Amino acid sequence: MPILEPQAGPQEMFLKSPADIAIYGGGAGGGKSWALLLEPLRHSGKGDFTTVIFRRTLTQVKNPGGLWDESAKLYAPLGGKAKTQGLEWLFPSGSRVRFGHLEHDRTVFDWQGAQIPLLCFDELTHFSRTQFFYMLSRNRSLSGVRPYVRATTNPDADSWVAEFISWWIDAASGLPIPERAGVLRWFVRVGDRLEWGDDEDDLAARHPGLPPKSLTFVPARLEDNPALLSADPGYRANLMALPTVERERLLAGNWKIRPAAGLYFHRAWCPLVEALPAGLKLVRYWDLAATPKTAGNDPDWTVGVKMGRDDRGCYWIADVQRFRGNPGEVEQLLLATATADGKGVRIGLPQDPGQAGKAQAAYLVRQLAGYSVTASPESGDKVTRFGPFSAQARAGNVSILRAPWAEDFLTSLEGFPEASHDDDADAASGAFNLFQQDGGGLIDFYSRALSQT
Prior knowledge:
alpha/beta; 2 domains; 10-stranded mixed β-sheet
């Protein structure tokens, strides 16, 4: 029978922790998922012991290379039998490891009456505070093993988890405090408020009748996982290519960084050029608005970014149209610009959700008959959509034609996402993503980097 053991360092510290609740992670590639999958094996010989490992959605559990696939590498060699329909492993002793989801807040009620001695959460920030504390009520055991909770996570400054583990995080830098790694603290829940203490007995004395629970946080980064670095030497480069916020979160383990002006774009990243190279593949993407400017308003802009890509995979901003007007005037601008660009320039349009959005997109496509037009829904939030273009700009792969519109364009991008208008950023990311739909592959690369966290 194979011998499995954790890697020395944070992974070993996490698996040896005596805490009632231990949270592991921070940076990407720290061996979080494997640590979570290893934990139930210490009880694989106990016939009445059950572990449930949760992801937020069932799709995340079953994704290729996800928890279910990875579990086979650990559990099958140790005699585990997979029950695919129920996403469960059964060991010869009768011990079970089950995979579940909590897609909606109300899904927790599917677990009413359950007894889960070992409760595990993969990517804790994906779950709500309500879900977590409700499931603690299901963390009970008649197996002779004290019930406990294990969780993994990547940083998210706006999640409830950031507050939950704030004692372990430097308030100024957002980075873990090394000497607090693995240190236990105790808390009790008084109503919806948590009361904390460094000493279990003292906290229990201050809150009679409320048994304290211990919590610890063990940070880990890519450097703590030599197995991954050896198997995939290019993974660090994947993380380095991410936009600033994601890179700081997933490579440095920063719990304080948020999207802010200047983090996603600097004009110094993009040289201004006097002319464009020949042979560019060209697209223009429109971010649409339809409110005229008056003395008392500050409406969004209709912005059309014309972008080229050369044979080396570098990008060139060839033209930016910015306009405020009513729907009819916007339609005229689209037609006039298409005529000026010529039929060799592919046009991209957003499609708002709902029937009205589909109808508007279909109408504009008909009006642009004779041109290559793509209308499609936008997925993800604005910052996520802008991320791939931001990463290429930071890498020096984006150049901008020196032109009268360039200053407004650069100023707008430098203000993203805090500025009152994000139309230029939306149009730039839309144009960039049009190339990826043609097999450019950078969106896939960006998604892979995030999915391996």
